Amino acid sequence: MPHADQPTLKLKLCVFMFLQYFIWGAWYVSMGPYLAVTLKFEGAQIGLAYGAFAIGAMISPFLVGLIADRYFSSEKLLAVLGILGGVVLCLIPRCTTFGSFYPMLILYCALYVPTLALGNSLSLHHLANAKVDFPRVKMLSAVGWIAGLFGLGFIASAESPTQFYLAGGASIVFGIFSLALPHTPPKKTGDNVSLGEILGLDALALLKKPSFAIFILCMFLICIPLYFYFVNLGVYLTQLKWTSMLEKTSLAQVSDVIFFLLLPFFLSKFGYKLTIFLGIACWVARYFALGFSADGGAAQTALIFTAILLHGACYDFLFIAGQLYVDEEANERIRGAAQGFIAFILWGVGAFVGTLLAGQVLAKNALATPLANGIAHDWKTIWLTPAWGALAVLVLFLIFFRNPARKAAPGAAGV
């Protein structure tokens, strides 16, 4: 049931989204340089470290399904997860070997990832007009990510362990603030919850629709090249000796804000197929731009900034549009299961395969002897590998995906 005081609700949700993504932005991009430069981890280990988020995503459905849906209100569980996550983040800088760092990071991710699904579910439950208001509230996540990058850049470098203390402090604030959110009681108090329900397997019935099956396949496949950007960009820019790297990469989230605002228009005007197609096409363009930047000469900086600025279209036109597509295709009975299933594919299995492969490609293309300018990898090969993979997914999606039968135009009200 929608919350009675919508203006206050939206303000609280905006602050919530800001804090949630401030935490993520304060360490996720900078972790690559920290592991490569400060802890001297190898490329494959860096890929595994980024894959910890995927492991957290594969664990989180059990946590949410077994605990959140049965015993605790969402806002109280968010508070506990935020505070515990903050404590773990503050302990991570003590872990300087891969054997100690990796399990601690997995533990943190298992605490953080459920807050994404819980926050989205709570927002969609209380907002009166979710299709219009949710993208606008979610826009503050991009602002929070930018603030996290700038906050770290202001007080320390990307190679510093300070990133984890900053994110940890923000996580504790996030946990405390979560108690101010509307009361959202557990949905299945006293009910038996099956394994299929926990994993969102009730939504597998949607795979009988050919277009939905193609959509899920393409979302999984695009996650494989997608994570090359997150795993490798920080290492690449560090080797290029970019100054104010964190602040410059935050332009990605500036474009995110712009495309959040454009998304309802694109969905209303062009439908899901063209919007998602443009999202995948932007990933193709992003990787070719990075690939050609490796030996781009005078155009190198412009090509890298092009790749960074494409982020809004890459993310919003693919993932946010995809989540709205899933929401529209599912009926009320399996809507939650469908969102859980797509999250498991995107943040779990797809992310794990993508980060693992990105780390392996990074390690395989390490130069035997670093160049005089500090370049230690064959970056053109590293970036063109996901470029060709994303192009193959684009062709598959274009040929086989069909728009769903037109209902009410998504986001038409208020555009």
Polypeptide structure, described:
The protein has 415 residues and is an all-alpha fold. 74% of the residues lie in helices and 0% in strands. It contains 15 helices and no strands. α11 packs across α12 (300-309). The longest helix has 43 residues, at 251-293. It is globular and about 60 Å long. The chain starts with 5 loop residues before the first helix and ends in a 15-residue tail after the last helix. 51% of the residues are buried.
Ranges with pLDDT <50 over ≥5 residues?
408-415
The total beta strand count reads 0
The CATH topology comes to: Growth Hormone, Chain: A
What's the overall geometry?
A: globular
Count of alpha/pi helices = 15
Binned strand content: under 5%
Radius of gyration: 20 Å
The name of the CATH architecture is Up-down Bundle
CATH top level class name: Mainly Alpha
Question: How many structural domains in the coordinates?
Answer: 1
The average pLDDT is: 87
Task: Assign the CATH superfamily.
Answer: MFS general substrate transporter like domains
Report the order of strands and helices.
HHHHHHHHHHHHHHH
Q: How would you sum up the major sheet? A: none
Helix fraction, binned, reads: over 70%
Structural category is: mainly alpha
